[in-house]
Queue: 4 jobs
Job 1
Amino acid sequence: MSREAILERAVDLASLEGLEGLTIGRLAGELEMSKSGVFANFGSKRELQLATVQAAAERFVADVIAPAQEAQAGLPRLRRYCEGYLAHMERAAFPGGCFWAAASAEFDDRPGPVRDAVREGIAAWLGELAAQAREAGMDDPEQAAFELWAVGLGANAYRRLLGDEAAFDRARRAIEERLAE
Amino acid sequence: MSREAILERAVDLASLEGLEGLTIGRLAGELEMSKSGVFANFGSKRELQLATVQAAAERFVADVIAPAQEAQAGLPRLRRYCEGYLAHMERAAFPGGCFWAAASAEFDDRPGPVRDAVREGIAAWLGELAAQAREAGMDDPEQAAFELWAVGLGANAYRRLLGDEAAFDRARRAIEERLAE
DNA sequence: CCTACCGATCGGTAGG
DNA sequence: CCTACCGATCGGTAGG
């Protein structure tokens, strides 16, 4: 079993159970491996968590960021980012809902390398949104990035907790109005 | 040690460690009680979790909802709700950040009574926001409630994960623009 | 409210 | 990659 294949399952499991609930024993059970077989690939639970965050970032880049590079920098790419971001969550790219929403809520008060890795992933995404907002000539790109990101976070929580698929329509409407300004 | 005093600590601990990370042993340690002494007050971990959600709801009502009843129904009360909501998170009414943001991310994919209780608390808050938006004459009160709530959720995450206190200024600016429409 | 205990599971190690 | 094990902690119980 390759490290890559293990991490595929680790990301899915972490989106469901959290990065702390991602236990080596449970992951081993799902992969039909021994605990120590999984353990040996990482050396510690912390390294498993860090590798899982990295794998989730790669999935997000492949799914959302890379395809949007076809669009022109500025407003067109910003729209593609928002569409990709919502579509990514809507089709449940992670079975437990957005990995990043779950990971940031879980680790925002646990200082250490895992928290730092989660923060860097989210900061990179906010930075991408702000860069395109700046390119589009918006007067406060960081403000726009914050608002667009918050709407996505809200849609994920609204759908997952309330079971209301209208969450994404609401998010699209909010984003449309924000970008039409 | 009264049940109420135990629940005070339970809410704080849950905001830091999550409702699953709120273990009976750890809570007992902080209260300098025996595990079974804490346990006997609730009968099961699930009952402790449910009582903790209830206590968090009471804290939110006392802190945010009740004071806003002084304001006139409609836009004035809606503004007070938003101000109270942000101030509640900004001064860290829960030491681990907004209890509800953490609890919804943790339980959104764990069916059962705890999830139901979290959902009901959040649905009640969204309903309050929508009711005032309707009273204020807004044309899609649920949409407004969704957007205002999402901005608060975003501000909590932005501040806690990125350590940026500007999160709340950004949230206030976004809410101001939304309500000025 | 307490001590003392149960089986299960945790992260991690020894040795192969 | 495996079996077998470690001490710690989990939710929960017995008995007082």
Job 2
Amino acid sequence: MTIKVLVADDQSMVRAGFRMLLAQEPDIEVVGEASNGLEAIDKATRLGPSVILMDIRMPELDGLEATRRILALDDPPRILVLTTFDLDEYVYEALQAGASGFVLKDDPPEQLLAAIRTVASGEALLSPSVTKRVIREFTRIRRPTSPEGLDELTEREREVLALIADGRSNAEIADALFISETTVKTHVTHVLQKLDLRDRVQAVVLAYRSGLVEAD
Amino acid sequence: MTIKVLVADDQSMVRAGFRMLLAQEPDIEVVGEASNGLEAIDKATRLGPSVILMDIRMPELDGLEATRRILALDDPPRILVLTTFDLDEYVYEALQAGASGFVLKDDPPEQLLAAIRTVASGEALLSPSVTKRVIREFTRIRRPTSPEGLDELTEREREVLALIADGRSNAEIADALFISETTVKTHVTHVLQKLDLRDRVQAVVLAYRSGLVEAD
DNA sequence: TCCGAGCTCCTACTCAGGTACGAGGCGGCG
DNA sequence: CGCCGCCTCGTACCTGAGTAGGAGCTCGGA
């Protein structure tokens, strides 16, 4: 069973390059090309490829929107997104659009071939540098902020935290509690250390997320 | 510069297998083995490997905790987590613990070798099936925060505000949006001016109170 | 075609926030 | 009594945040 591939890129040189590269592989067949998003959708329906190599930046309709629409079809092909830069905001959008993979145009050819076979088999694959970014983002988000240390706080420290969560400056907190700003700083430092936070901004976030303060 | 590898797995057959496999490669040298987590930590400090192949299920101390402790060292090695099953909740924990990659024991050897070289170079790499899971989780969580209100703000400014409300620094926001820190500062200043706020702390408070972000 | 809005980026500056370290007073508890 | 946790305050220092002011880009509307 050969893998039928559709190449969607607005630069003909790029399309030609892929066609040549893929022609070497006995298990891969390029069934068509598209130079913009609309054409990609059209050919996706008519040619029935199993994998689409999709550039993001294209005229008429960009690769992201084309991806969304193609994946809305019955029995859609897998989409492998191509891009020139790895530092590209579109990575996230592409993944959310449902792309099965993301490779850079200057990744080594073997990697591209491996990626095509991988997504054709239903798995997903990202370029290493992209993977790194996704993991960083993933672990950053998926850290359940535990109210763990909240009960470690002393009465005074909780008081200070509540005022921080109200958006007040150290001077204002000092004023409210009738203590010096220095003392406030001391309390703040202790709160941050106990809760393992970096700055008061994160303290506010934690205060709301932990329910220590109500949104309303 | 050869890549120094430490193999940590409680099954000696597995260790022997890796040793044989890696012995074939001129650029990779196995500098030691460990059969449990504590031993892994010890040898990580004494042998100074650049990559550790770490099994998760090990006696004494499991691979996750060992990973956390090793990454707390000065100039720690990269950790490539090994597992038998891809359907493993440990994937998330491993990534959160700071592992640079995740491969299955029955992945093809070339893939393991590629993974070792990739993580040694500072990038990250996951097995395709693992990548698939991570992407699914990633896209599920990372919903764009809904607008509603704050109409004064431009799209970009709202985006920046949402990230501020997540507790991120300007540098982190720049990183997430692929723009310079300078530009982030510009956006922040505009947000504060438009909303008549003093600093980002008040912006967070407003974001939660206005329901722009959910507490949960 | 010109104009403005929006996004991007820069330098240079000020200041609040945070850390490190030290220190004194208070009250409870073994 | 002596120790210890808590609260208080200070000085010194460093960095991130925010402001000011200017500039170039693209795109869509007048």
Job 3
Amino acid sequence: MAAGRSVDAAARLRAAGLRSTGQRRAVLEALSRLGHATVDELAAEVQASMPEVSLSTVYRTLEALDAVGLVTHTHLHHGAPTYHSVDDEPHLHLVCQACGAVASESVEVALDLATAVRRASGFRVDLTHLALHGRCASCAPAIPDDPLAPPLHTSEAPAAGSLPAPPTLTEA
Amino acid sequence: MAAGRSVDAAARLRAAGLRSTGQRRAVLEALSRLGHATVDELAAEVQASMPEVSLSTVYRTLEALDAVGLVTHTHLHHGAPTYHSVDDEPHLHLVCQACGAVASESVEVALDLATAVRRASGFRVDLTHLALHGRCASCAPAIPDDPLAPPLHTSEAPAAGSLPAPPTLTEA
DNA sequence: TTGGCTGCAAAAATTTTGCAGTACC
DNA sequence: GGTACTGCAAAATTTTTGCAGCCAA
């Protein structure tokens, strides 16, 4: 499923003075199999076939792979960053703030934005894994489509007392 | 400084069955004074004048204010979400992955993107506090401006050994 | 060989919760 | 007066580190 535009991981690692180890390859494969995943998910996937791989190794591996550019990460949900395989088709994420669903969208839709920002301030946007927050079609109430419209969650405030934590589905 | 388009916080809270307390007002004021801040920064700012306000209160307050739409949050850096006052001029953030600097940009530059996404999938983007990651002008090396170009941090991999954690300036 | 990498376990940092008292409506 | 909110302290999580042995190159 994920054999997009392969990159020679080993070579890239070596070029940076790092090494290509079994664990690193395992993490890379797990990620490309999963498409995108959090540290936990990734650790679980790797440990399915290599139980001794420790969580700290996954953390350190991801950090290294990220530094070398073999993976990227975005912040889809609160605390935990979500990692992506560079080997994967570049895409951006649409994160629904209401139901938590994560959908993908072609990066092309944001090409103009990148250009505009570049022109306006010289900043170069990394679109490969941009995350857009908002409301998915099914959660969007019949409100005008003004993207600047204040908080989308205004009228359905919590009943009272404990504030309901928004559901947290993470499947794409 | 930050008396943009005011919102009646008390009213909005009450409308949701919540209450307007001194602590909540303090958090709101601190946030509007700071523009945007993490939980820690906010707690510090609040505690400067109200030392007894506990960190857990800040967490719970932010959660409540967010649910009611009086504040929003984005994920500028790794773990900690950054909160924003709705009272503030809407803007998006340009986060440099190299030096960590955070700059602001007018939301207008992304209006078309919102429309395109809306059209493509029915998803309504909340642009008010979008975060774009990439390279600021001073950190962008002389590379072609292809926003799809693989990882921007490819050739300057860590010397070896411990991977240098990117600096973490958070001033806008 | 050499020095980067890994596993294990402990330490640190970050968030969340339980409760009894307090304050807002 | 009823009930949401707060502070404090403890509990639960999530990440980071120290080290001795292991393994790519």
Job 4
Amino acid sequence: MEPSPTIEFSNTGKVLFPSLGITKGRVIEYYIRMAPRMLPHLEDRAVMLHRFPEGVDHEGFYEKDAPAGTPSWVTTAVHHSETADRDIHYIVCDRPETLAWLANLASLELHVTLSRVGNPRVPLFAFFDLDPQPPAQFPEAAEVALQLRDLLVEAGVRSYLKTSGKKGLHVLIPLEEKYTFRQVRDAVHSAGILLSRRSDRVVHEASSRAKRPGSVLVDYAQNAAWKTMICPYSLRAREEATVSMPISWQALESGARPEDFNIGTVSSKMDDPWRGILSDRQEIWTESE
DNA sequence: GTTAGCA
DNA sequence: TGCTAACAACGCTGG
DNA sequence: CCAGCG
Ligand SMILES: [Mn+2]
Ligand SMILES: [Mn+2]
């Protein structure tokens, strides 16, 4: 075991969300207080950072490879990227100190893989990424999410919902660790096709011609090894400092909105609508109709 | 935001 | 020692 | 194979 780390926080007064005056210190405090909720989703997964050292009004950058200066107590896992023909040393955020260190790097957004870093080809979830196509907004995504819920209920599946923190919604189904991404992606795609038959609002392909304005895309392509999803409770790099928030289906029906959940309103004391998700492992459903 | 490299 | 430039993503699909 | 997208 490495010695207990001490982290030197820098520029804690620097404003990262100008329109709300939120400083980096507030961001660090947020991630420290949310660590109990976030670590179960981070501790054995690769993480990708979306960093904004100059704040959300400036361009950010993604970071996968652990940067020079990564402390020795930070866990990393090597993966060889075929595309880039190089090794990537993914950060594995398996302790609160790592979360605090990432926050100090101005990693406003944390994106996680859908599989364990030690078993990257086996998905932990089926992931429905619901993307409203302008001028469609959150209400349209909510309408489609509720239709998707009905379809999944018919198939006997328990599903879990979160806001993306932007305008979309994410629906997850935790799985037995025995499927390939191909199997899961195909099942999500099929459900998208079925949903598009039931609702004119739904589109199931991301091609530019298929993405009709005002529709909601059921984006199945995110179900792949080394693709990522915004981590539950991660901040989003938006002016409003919103959070990707796990919510109940009941809350969605009652008119919950993405902007209800932000750095000022979210705490780890709130009820957890995702309690038990990581042990609620289910079989892939088979659709009828 | 941090580090490597150079004056 | 102090300053500054460089650097920080890739997997997947459609065409 | 490349461009575009998330
Ligand atoms: Mn999305
Ligand atoms: Mn998407």
